[in-house]
Amino acid sequence: MIASPGDVASERAIIRDVIYEWNAVHSLSRNIVLLPIGWESHSSPEMGASPQAIINDQILDKCDLLVGVFWTRIGTPTNEHPSGTVEEIEKHIKYSKPAMLYFSGQPVVMESVDLNQFKELQVFKKSCQSRGLYESYDSHADFKVKFYRHLQLKVNQHEMFLGVNASEIDVEPVPSKTKLPSLTNDARILLKEASLDPHGHVLYLRVLAGTHVQVNGKDLVFSNERREVAKWDAAIQELINLQLLVTVGQKGEIFELTNFGYQIADMIEL
User: Fold this and answer.
1) C-alpha angle with apex 41: 48 to 24, nearest 5 degrees?
2) Which domains does the chain possess?
3) What is the rounded CA–CA span in Å between residue 102 and residue 121?
4) How do beta strands 201-207 and 254-257 pair?
5) What mean pLDDT comes out for the span 24-47?
């Protein structure tokens, strides 16, 4: 279970990438496959209870391991807890299942921070100090390294994952190959250019003079006719839907390539 508020989209993508990498290397020998689960991808519409109660029933109760990540926000309050993310964590712990918590120390522009959210987050973080161990990180790269190492330790040492032996079943090794997804030409161009950018960023800027899609030192919007802008809007959304690109920040102006995005970009020849 990936439990997190809305300001850590990049971390959610990193968690999925790390899990996919772990599966590629270890799943056959350990007879374990890890499936990254989140409310945004695994819940379905339902009426008759609060949104969080439905998420708990549809997803949380079925998960074995939880990864919680925070930066400046704690999330939307529920009937029982300061946020849905906190409720997921507390209920998971109550079920005596392992929960791994991470708090970001990355720099942030304070004008963009909701101070009430930040204060609530600090209260929750302080409450965690006497209840276990959590980890801090100062960059996305630092988070990826730490989470990959911690995930291996957890799966290798926690009693939930012990006692599973691949020799108990007859499995033929099957080579795993990343396949190039079907992409429009505009999406291919945008993805390839983003992979060549030192920071893997795509900037989407709306100003009085018009709209700009800037990547790798280039502006891909050649005119401000709506038809021209719309095709790049569609290309960005296409890459997001395929988890090749993630939104960074709250305003939807900066996008960042995922690890999977880099893998696919390396397969593209323009």
Assistant:
1) 145
2) 2-168 (3.40.50), 185-265 (1.10.10)
3) 12
4) antiparallel
5) 87
pLDDT tens for 100-127 read: 999 999 988 888 889 999 999 999 999 9
CB 247 within 8 A of CB 203: no
Compute the C-alpha angle 129/135/139, nearest 5°.
Answer: 140
CA dist., res. 43 & res. 21, Å (int): 24
Nearest Cα neighbor of 259 from 79, 6, 12 is: 12
Prediction pTM value: 0.62
Short-list 10, 12, 54, CA closest to 37:
12
Residue type, 124: F
Report yes or no: 211 and 253 within 8 Å, Cβ to Cβ: no
**pLDDT at site 66:** 96
- The dihedral through the CA atoms of 150, 18, 7, 5 has a sign that is negative
